[in-house]
Amino acid sequence: METRTEKKYVLDMAQALLAKTIISAHCLPDPHFAAATVHSIYYDTLDLQFLSEKIDSTYFKAKVRLRWYGDWDFKPDNGPAFLEAKIKEGGLQRKVRIQVSRTGRELALLSLGDPELATLPALLATRGVGLCASARPVFVISYRRMRFIDPMTGVRIALDQDIHASRHALSCPGAAGSPMLSSAVIETKGNLASLPPYLAPLMTMGLRPESFSKYLHCYQSLMQQHM
Question: Where is the VTC domain (predicted)?
Answer without folding.
Answer: 4-222
